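Sample intake sheet
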Amino acid sequence: MTTKGNLYTSYKEGFKKNLEGLFLYDDKDLNITYRELDSETARLANGLKGLGLSEGDRVTVQVDKCIEMVYLYLACVRSNIIFHPLNPAYKERELSYFLDDAKPSLFISNEETISRINDLGLGHSINHLFVLNEDGSGNFSDISSTEDSFITVDCSENDIAALLYSSGTTGKPKGIMLSHGNISSNVQSLVKAWGFQASDCLLHALPIYHVHGLFVALGCALMTGSKLKWLESFEVDSILKSLPECTVMMGVPTYYTRLLTRDALDPELTNQIRLFISGSAPLLEETFNEFYKRTNHQILERYGMTETNMNTSNPLKGERKPGTVGLPLQDVQVKIVDENNVILPEGEIGNIQIKGPNVFKGYWEMPDKTKEDFSEDKFFNTGDKGLIDADGYLSIVGRSKDMIISGGLNIYPKEIESIIDKMDGVLESAVIGISDEDLGEKVVAIIVSEEGALLNKKEIIAEIKGQLAGFKAPKEVKLVEQLPRNAMGKVQKNILRDTFN
């Protein structure tokens, strides 16, 4: 599959026949047609041009989920300006790094964050700062022009459309450059794989600062002219109320485990849904089976990551194997190799490598790291361990980089360990993820104290929450006399996981 030019052109090709149709609605009287979407993004695109932004500039946005963020994303795409979304939970320590690394020309956030921008000690001066608060107040609307038509920039499919960050195991986040072609080709594959049509209504409760909610969910709707039922966040009662209105739901495993706690979840409630999709974290076979028992629906699990968008999916029609993430999507190649990059036989566990038009262009201003993460034959080394069965289905058995996935969000232990290790009375620490029925994995800090030191577990958690996003903070702190190490002195986190799981 090939795509040419601007991502927005691909989107509009999908929705142009439904301009008067509904794009998005919620339970608070928000009703946006595709014509209004096109108009609003044009006004914002003209406004960005009026601020002096040009192709390749970065726009960083850190706000709560809102329609304005969708408009801004599409305005940037239309202008060939790089969209850089951030989790609103990020604190000053994290934010200062992202802003200094991405060097945006425009930063949009809430009033409190913007008012404290000078406290971040940035080495980069941001030309334009705008406020968009959770209640919609602020001067964000001042960006928009009165001109509601805009000629979408005819750029290359290889131009960068978005910059998303994924923290590395060293704790230093890496900017992942996703091109117009990466996103467009992947959405086209997903629309085909999942049978999306203009008649669909997608239940959207996901955040829109990462691939799942921003490119996968929004993309499938835009490229088919279907509509979205818009929820600001995941809340079980809102989901249960909305299910009869929708035909497709996308979520992380935590969404499904929480729905299973409610007696209201039954075949009648889910009668209009044709497809439940799960991703961003492993779906337990137990959850798959229980959901089918309760609803007569088999959850479709797929596999993706920030660097690659979506790679594989269980089939829309055909066997959905619990415990697997399905078959490679169109034009995506998946292979399992050993440490010497030799392809392994079916059923053997090894390193998962991916190649295709969905794979990112590289890490922002990190050419050496980019080269390191690709094989000589241009396959991306995902860092995940897995196997391919006799039917070609991929199963993921672990992550070689010790990443924790809690509630569908990626958490990198080194980032938390670096804070704990600087605390008074701490000799060393190891952060692990252990099984949790609700979150999939929960963060647990294992700490060795200095001789004679008395550590307060609650104070340790509070200190981390003050520096990092709350979802990264440990749910538990365990105090031990020493950490298990191998002959080379490396902490054996597998032993810690076995001990505390």
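Comment: The radius of gyration is 23 Å. The mean pLDDT is 94.
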